[in-house]
Amino acid sequence: MGTTSFLTRARGLLRIRNQLVRECLAELLSTFVLIIITLSGAAQKITSFETKGNLLTSYLAGALAVMVGIYTAGGISGAHMNPAFSFAMCLMEQFPWWKFPIFVVVQTLASFISAGAVYILYYDAIWHYSNGTLTVSGPRETASIFATYPADYVSIANGFLDQVIGTGVLIVGVMGIMDARNKGVPKGLEPVVVALLVLSIESSMGSNCGCPLNPARDIGPRLFTYVAGWGPEVFRWVEGRGGGGD
Questions:
Q1: How far apart are the C-alpha atoms of 139 and 161, rounded to whole Å?
Q2: Which of 22, 211, 191, 6 is nearest to 102 (CA)?
């Protein structure tokens, strides 16, 4: 009885009652889960010379990570995990504009932290694979573990259009899944259907730029690589790096 009483009091003291703080923490956790699984899928593929993973496993990791993220915080913050989705929800008047910049900061911060966690998790593998040099281009580059980079034939205009279309298809698809007037998805399986949507987009639109579909997923980890030793080249449009990927 004493232990039960102590745990009850502890839960009461630790309980967060402010709704905005609860939503921000939920968004932080769901985005962290999304990005750490996504980046780990890429890290396993690249650092193992594709012997323990390939493009398909990387795409599956990214898609299933979306599902896990939604199940983690969908009932608290909505598990946006993506500034583009938050923006679309604001346009649809289903999310207040004043919360938008807060969620963007939280999502980007979570992505940055996730990149750091993946760097720690794959630290030895990254340095072994890269021969002790952190590079953005070349046969042993490791920057594409964390952020997506364009294929060498893609222009800036085409890259921009690629992301607008890919992200647009994602948002339209998610809105369609959420719309109660459409054919309903069995309750509780919405995250699974969204994951299948993400997998379909990755499998069909990933070759140009790696299909990030999420500004926070790209900006947060890219900022991490900048401060962690890859340098300012991570922000340049450099040819010859391949299409980087999830």
A1: 27
A2: 22
Distance CA 240, CA 243 (A): 9
Q: For tokens 């639109």, what's the residue?
A: 205
For residue 48, the one-letter residue type is: S
Report, as an integer, the average pLDDT of 125-147. Answer: 94
Indicate the DSSP class of residue 186.
P
Beta strands in 9-125 (DSSP E): none
- CB contact set of 172 (below 8 Å; sequence gap of 6+): none
| pLDDT (0 to 100) of residue 243 | 41
CA distance 195 to 68: 9
CB 243 within 8 A of CB 149: yes
DSSP 8-state class, residue 228: I
* Residue 110 CB neighbour total at 10 angstroms: 26
pTM here? Answer: 0.90
Q: Which domains does the chain have, with CATH numbers?
A: 18-235 (1.20.1080.10)
Report the distance separating Cα 26 and Cα 134, nearest Å: 33
Crossing angle of helices 215-225/83-91, nearest 10°?
150
d(CA 81, CA 69): 8
